[in-house]
Amino acid sequence: GLGVLPRPMAALGAYRCIECNGEATELYRDYQRGVLRISICKSCQKPVDKYIEYDPVIILINAVLCKAQAYRHILFNTKINIHGKLCIFCLLCEAYLRWLQLQDSSQNTDPDDLIRYAKEWDFYRMFGIASLEQTSFFIGIFIALWWMTPEMLKRKSDFILLLKALLLSTYGKLLLIPAVIWEHDYTPLCLAFIKVFVLISNSQAIRVTLNLNRILPWFAIFFGLILENGVVCFFQKMGWDV
């Protein structure tokens, strides 16, 4: 049977075909008495969104595999509003990892309240630095995309949708916590793989949202990394541990 169903009807262009990215007015039609029929795309003659029949776990697996169809389903054909909370939680994970590494480098076991307060401030500082780095990364992406394809980002809604896609595609940072909990000799390698996975997810989110080829999203991500590393160098010159 159909799994998690979005709204059955909408205005023209409210939904997208997950196969060809064509516009659709509905994902399925309800014939009453439990009889539902998935809509067929007029452009490619395939089901507009086969994922409305799938279990959320299957959709998540396909998203982890960075399938464009799964990304289109999540971004265009569902009403997911967890991007803000997900962003905060991912930043907390990253701040915790940095804070933990900072504590390991300064082996101070003094139980004094002042020391504990300083350690707590270090965590807030790491959260602020991680937030600024991610913000600069996103700004770099927006600048590069606006420079390369200004016609793609004409409306405010286009910026909002792309920002939502980027925030959702950073879910890979949640893997930072297990990587730290199950610490072993290969932890730095695991962290590197997590970083690469997040960048691949970001690239797929940009590609799906703006319907671009594979090269332009990576160019935008490269520019975002340059800006992010510029912020890191700035903090290092100020004498901060990042």
UniProtKB/TrEMBL annotation:
Keywords: Endoplasmic reticulum, Lipid metabolism, Lipid transport, Membrane, Transmembrane, Transmembrane helix, Transport. It is a multi-pass membrane protein. The keyword NADP does not apply. GO terms for cellular component: cortical endoplasmic reticulum; endoplasmic reticulum membrane; Golgi apparatus. Signal peptide: none annotated. Its main location: endoplasmic reticulum. It is found in: Endoplasmic reticulum membrane. One of its GO terms (biological process) is sterol metabolic process. It comes from the Eukaryota. The chain crosses the membrane at residues 126-147, 159-182, 215-235. It holds the Pfam family Arv1. Belongs to the ARV1 family. Mediator of sterol homeostasis involved in sterol uptake, trafficking and distribution into membranes. This is Protein ARV. It comes from Hippolais icterina.
